[in-house]
Structures
1.
Amino acid sequence: MWLIILLCLLVGLFIGSQIPIFLPVSMVKYVSIGVLAALDSVFGGIRGYMEDSFDNTIFITGFFTNSLLAAGMAYLGDRLGLELYLAAVVVFGVRLFQNLGIIRRYLLRKDE
Amino acid sequence: MQNTGGKISIMTICMVVGIMLSIQFKTSSSYDVSLRGTRTDEMAYKISTISKERDAYSKEVVELRQKLTNLENGSGEAIADLQSELRKANVSAGLTSIEGPGIIVTINDNPKAVRLDIDVSNYLVHDYDILRIVNEIRASGAEAISINDQRITAMSEIRCAGTTVLVNQNRITPPFVMKATGDPKSLKAGLSMPGGILDQLTGFLQIKLESADKIEITAYNGVLKSDNSHPISTK
């Protein structure tokens, strides 16, 4: 199952590199934090899947709201003159490490 | 494992994340990273304050030079001779504003340049175009020349800096208006020569050449450099 997920990621990367869509340069900062939020919600979803607490609606809605909220915070921070995106970066980074650690423990425990 | 609906969501969202990631990589690799974010605002603000200071200093330089010339005003023939020599020297060095008949040459990029996709650079104004036109103006007997109100002195450079032209360390933008005082007839004749520089550029750039009875050419407001050279004293 993990190979299929990795394959999906690679297919997505390949499709994205072929699509001739370029972001307007002013939006790059916001989309990058949105990407980080999306990555975090994917890892959160995988962890939920391992714990059998996975809920489809929460996963999908979480993905969209996290990305939009992160990009929105970065934009608001730019307007206010505060570097609000730092908060999003810290939080998502921490959660990424946590989720990855938990996923790793589940995988290793299964193999025992 | 159960929960195939969950697997499918995870897989599709993974694909979406992959697409977003590669679009992001594509976009950020295609522009200069060092110009991103708030640093641009800081640098723009710095540029505007420093430019304002530079303009104020330029005005002061012109006024102080004018005051210097005024202070020389005294009586006596020797002083009068000295003053006329000083005036002539200032005029040829470009340190005083000048007024007189002459010509105005205006050049600009060809508006067709946005539509053409072959060799656009031929239809844009380059620093060497301006340089050659100034050369021609000089050869036709000009007494004073200015480009976009920057006085051309013996040491003025006309140089490319990215997409703009630098004259006397000042950035100038199109349309480039070159004013020259002198005999309008010989100036105009010299520039309109068949095979001359304006003839070569016609059809590629927008060119306008007109003569005028009264042209004002502003003084040079920059620094005169003479750190390494000294005049040789003649006895």
Note: Residues 85-111 of chain A form the longest helix (27 residues).
2.
Amino acid sequence: MVDPIDVSGLTKAFGATRALDGLELHVRAGEVHGFLGPNGAGKSTTIRVLLGLLRHDGGRTLLFGGDPWRQAPELHRRLAYVAGDVVLWPELSGGETIDLLGRMRGQDVLARRDELIERFQLDPTKRGKAYSKGNRQKVALVAALAADVELLILDEPTSGLDPLMEDVFQQCVGEARDRGQTVLLSSHILGEVERLCDRLSIVRDGRTVRTGTLDELRTGTAMRIRARIAGRAVGLDRIAGTDEVKISGDEVTLAVQPGALGEVLEVLRRAEVQELESSPPSLEEVFRSSYGPASRR
Amino acid sequence: MSSTVRALVRVTVGRDRVLGPVALYVVAGYTLAQAAAIHWGYASPEDRHGLARTAQGNATYAALLGPARALDDLGGLTAWRTVVVGATFAGLTGLLLAVRHTRAEEELGRGELLLAGAVGRRAPAGVALGWIAALQVAGGAVLAIGLMALGLPVVGAVLQGAAVAAVGVLFAAVAVLASQLVATARAARAVAGVALGTAFLLRAVTDAGGPDAFRWVTPLGWAEEVAPFTANDPAPLLLLVAATMVVVAVALRLQGARDHGTGLLTRTTPGPDRASARLRGVYGLTIRRQRSAVAGWGAGLFAVGAAVGAVATSADDLLGDGGTGAKLLDRAGGDPVDAFLSSTSTVVAMLACGFTLQALLRLRRDEVSGLLEATLATATRRRQTLLGAHVVVAGIGSVVVLLCAGVGLLVVLTLSGDPGHGVDGLLATLSRTPALWVLGAVSALLVGAAPRASALGWAALASCLALWIIDPLLGLPTAVSDVSPFGLLPDLPAAPFGAVATAALIAATAVVLALADAALRRRDLT
């Protein structure tokens, strides 16, 4: 089966600015794929290339195995998109917009429409210009989630939603996956990503820096170690792969890259370790290490 | 000046790097081109005297340009050709710029960003008005200096520059007032545009023989009464300034009193909770979004058509002997009403072309706002979205709008017992359709190939109007006057229908649209 999204070596420049610089993104059918990165990393540009709004400069960009620039209309029948900054037609009501978007995707009947309007507590009779940011997002989300499409492309879809609606959104994405839909979810909300995503790609400066399941990304990120020692720990900070070494009285804390663990344990053993606690890197630490300056990685 | 106001001024002025000079060109350029044409084309008193005899009796000219005073004088002739039209152009630039800096900003949400800073609620509108006033005064100064350079008396030149600039500032203020009443930039432009149109129509009716009292209720009438180079009366300028101050005071007071983002007259009524069967695809969407514009322009042009019809009934008395009027009369086979309808149909069509351009340039506004992205992320072809829907709706809408003008004419002429000329007028109006289409196509090409310069479509229309006014004066070679599609088309009903010109313009429309389509499909969307 062809991967719904298969992007490799993607480059795109706007004038002198290189927005995308060899980006990789592989989304497999049926998975929820998290698309993460700091602001300006190139997430929205990638999505706009995938939608055929921008033409790539180089690399391979395949959407359902096709060319998103040339075959946009055909390919778009198979996907629904929610923009990060949803703009609605000011003259149309929310309900009209939902129906119209469905029809323009080739879907005359939106089976889950009314149920989703109910769950998102959306008033479909308001005009586009009267909705708040969160409600504009709800309109776009209902239109996308109600559509029977293979792929959902969601660009920071919950940035305007309240926590209750965020829960509804997460349930809906879970149901979409259960129906076999593929989801590309660009997000800054770590809890959402941790709960929903099967795999993630983290981008920075137009390049993919990490990709894999959350467990795979955790491996390779420093773990935290806290120890109580009776003797003296010497030279911990000189071991390659350790960071944030702190010794106060008999307590030692530090971050250790997986490769340096043996050496650290050896030093601690010689320092007559009494207690030892290790914790796997949190998702936040995975992000921080990927988002931060290159030296930290 | 506080630092926040300084920053505000920088933002306001910086956004008009392109449009500011365009506004200057519109305000001063038309008048100076006309003045130069007169300077060289009518150098001898005999020429001017000949023109004076004919112009005095032409109702179309009277309606469009105002009363002719002392036409055998270079200054008087120049003022007659330029004061009313120049002031109307200035009013138009003033109102468009004012809406752009006030209601449009508020609608887009950028106004909120400013107000969240240490900026007073009235400051953006105040700064915008100050900036537009500066632009208009600069335009007026360029105009006055230009007139002096052509050897016209200083007092008249200064008064004309002042009158034109004062009308520009007044309508900028009117637009800021309109921006308080309605919540969208489109509606604000429409309200202020109707105010300017009404001002123009009132004085047109007066000058074509209507009640003289009308002149004193319209700012364009006041500008006429300044009568540069003849009466040289500065008193009406005070009326213009006083009116501006009142409108500004009211507008700023309302601005300070209302909630940001709302319009005082706008109520939001709930819409349907689901879409009707007709709202499908980009065609349904575009029709739905343009229907109110078609209705508005249609109603406005129906009124214009009716006014033209009312004046046409007395065309017998209005067409003088000799000169341009007589030439038209000859071609119309001695029928003064047909002669009158020939020239007015062209002007009416140029007005209707405003709809065509507005409808097509919506494409660019949708691109900037992100609505185009929403459409193109669905299974909609670029060609359908970009050209199909907008071109078809603008093209058909243009015919509808022209038809409204023609029907207005027909109704009034039929009521006054002359249905024959009514039908002539209707057909004459409709015969101008290809000119609207070709200018629309040029706008589409600008959106495709030079999106940032897409507003130049308006400059093209203004140039056509200027060329049409200047042409009979200079007797331009047809190669020049035919650059304007309105000049290329035969002026029905005085001239017979021109199948070749019509076919040529339709073919040109098709070619330009094909180029626009190619350009639009090749480029990134912003």
Note: Chain B has a mean pLDDT of 88.
3.
Amino acid sequence: MARQHLTDFELMILLAVLRIGEDAYGVPIAREIEQTGKRSVLLGAIYTALDRLEENGLVTSTYGDPTPERGGRAKRFFKVTGKGLKAVKDTQRAFTALWSGIPQLKGGTT
Amino acid sequence: MNTHPPRLAWTLLQWLAMPEDALIGDLDEEFRRGRTSTWYWRQALSLIVLSPARQVRSDPLRSARGLALAWAAFLAVFAVFEVFIAPRLAGSTIGGYSGDGWSAFWIGACICSYVGFAVSAWIISFHRNHPGPVLMLHVASVVLAMAIAVAIVEIRAPAPTRVPHVLFPLVSVALPYQLRSGFILAPLTMVIVGLLVSRRRQPQTT
């Protein structure tokens, strides 16, 4: 059975895939996480997480056409499923609930 | 601008990690866009280090079979050493082995352990279908076994006391540790043998 809660890395990946849209494959996903998340990522770790998310039905993947600039290798495009979207929303809700009512976090972002 | 990733990293990645084509394509694309060789090496090494876990997850039966075969080969080499060679070398005694100094016995046993590592890597690498990740799994198991064996031998038979005969299979794994470099040399031996076998079987690399 699929897990109900996402790890922070899985959540970042799902959000990156949603932000990128149609062109979501390994390279832009990694760049999106690096730029918005301010952290360096390993492509292998992204693929491992995406494989896990796909096994759990949270994303689907399709292969594009091979291109010369990639040494004749195809891109693997990812798309968030309805179940994945629900998981993101559930996680956001859980985080928001946890966030609220903490005095130390009121009045600023730091 | 260099358009081909570091050749050694690329070769090791292809053979030891065996990642999917799309991932290799992503790495190549990023490298052609200006990422450094250090970046490529970091990505490749992380994939190689993670490959045993991926291998177990994707094909547990083949992983178990590969490990069993490799360890059987390693221990068989040591059985041959124990029966035919050890009795001829000075330092071996009935019911136990002296643990002090570098006698002919210890040198022979240490060489034998490396022969065992090489044979086990050779057997795995002879497999037709993507042997690299299974070999990396074997390497990981050897390093783990070496660490456990060293701990047990240190507790049971700290130098210069004699190593009980019953611990011999463990000692065989722990022997490279005697050089204090076994944790590097043993995996390196297996990877080099595996690469050589692999290149002989598949001469084309690109």
Note: The beta strands of chain B are 92-93, 96-97, 163-164.
4.
Amino acid sequence: MGMTISEKILARAARLNKTKAGDIVWVKVDKAMMDDILGPRVEIAENLKKLKKDVWDRNKVVIISDHYTPPANAKQAQIVKFTRDWAREYGIDNYYEFIGPCHQIMVEKGHALPGKVLLGTDSHTCMYGAMGAFATGIGSTEMLGVLVTGEIWLKVPETIKVIWEGNLKKGVMAKDVILKTIGEVGHAGATYKAVEHVGNTIENMIMDERMCISNMAIEMGAKAGIIPADDKTKDYLLNRGINDGYEIYKSDNDAKYCDTLYFKAEELEPVVSCPNEVDNVTEIKNVEGTPIHQAYIGSCTGGRYNDLLQASNVLKGKKIAKGVRLLVSPASKEVWDKCAKDGILQILSEAGSTILAPSCGACLGLHSGALASGEVCISSTNRNFLGRMGSKDSKVYLGSPLSVAASSIEGNIVDPRKYL
Amino acid sequence: MSDKIFTGNVWKYGDNINTDIISPPAYMELSIKEASRYAMSPIDTNFSQKFKKGDILVAENNFGSGSSRETAPLTLREIGVYIIIAKSFARIFYRNSINIGILVLECSETHKIEDRDELEVDYLGGKIKNITKNEIYKCTKMPEHIMKIINAKGLVPFLEEHNKDREEY
Ligand code: SF4
């Protein structure tokens, strides 16, 4: 019996020849990531002192202040300061702040590499699956264990294979692909499992789009959302000056999957996920005309270069509707700079949007664009839970950056294809 | 929770009680003690006042979905939640709960349980008795080695107490 990518990576990290779904293994962690909101401040700093321990390998720990940057108030500023000071105290050189959501930074800075095991105190850590890594979110006490020992016990997950074949229609993006997938699997349908995204639709996607897919694996309850690394992955890394130090794994032909789903890309229309669950997915035409107050393009899910580029194609020479705000937060400083250089920020700004710092802020209603009661937002982020972006009486629809941009022009949710 | 039976009254919720509901992001900058006042507030503003130590939190499917935030079980524990019974749990929440000493039990019949029912939970035997309704349901049996972590009030105190290394738990 062959092995899946997850089984191979976990076998490597557990120093075993073979693992199979259901095995419980102790694996060596290649990188441990903490952010500010759930980083050292929650259970970790205090307990590390209590246990009189140091971190196992300071070069394998990455800390990113992103949720509370730039801080909205003194409390948030205090948390960022605490995180920064803690990183310094423990000699963590891989500390970043104010340059964007952690997951984008992990990829840009070359921490998320094919074949590696990465753990983070944030559920969207699964995004590094797009690089062909095994990556998953853990809680603070688990992270404490990782920091002390460099290891963690994991149950090797079963894998669901999700195949997308064919070409996407114009106006349909990776975001539509993953929302459709989540709609079918259900928000708990992949709990405890890994999802492997394959097929030529995925192979044809650029890395920006693949990351959007893997990012949302947790929205099906999954432990990991893996896309096999290939030449595109290698090229992406090469552009960042990385040409070795990683391993590319492929699932064997006779690997065992617990389920296989098959989708035809040609049949996919733009979709949205409706309040208040991510798997509440419907074709956008079914909610066309829903009035919105805010449109948001940003986050580790939908704020990358390609997302802003696509949005700018829709908004070029147009104006957003009166009474609506379009907030744009590039997923990193690097994305910001590239978009600025290529004139994309200018187009978005001229259309009436407000360009924000690269940050988590509005994605979870912490700062820079929280919603008031009764307000409706269409967003390129990954969660639309009750109260996610502000008031518990606000509503969030999730859609592609194209759909968000088009809706901001009309002030209502709209199919983006009429603007292409 | 060193007795083998836990008796208490129920506060009952539905499906998909996610981490944004249990620990709303807006209050995460507060200390656990302060933030606990807002636990579950998007669906029940009264929760932190009405939940009394010894009560039992019961829900339907997929409890704790979403974020990895340990502030979710931590704020619940602060209020006095020591036992949660649901049809199913999200993966990260389940592990986080055990790590901080909350007993999480799966039971396929939670739809039969209502607010203020009195339950008698035999977590080693995997049985829940609904005293109010005079019914018996099956639930997951919690293995004794996991109960050791829970009884120690979590993994960190467990490690301290036993001064054990990982091979032993
Ligand atoms: S951008 Fe949103 S989803 Fe991504 S890490 Fe930040 S808060 Fe989480």
Note: Chain A touches chain B through 48 residues (CB under 8 Å).
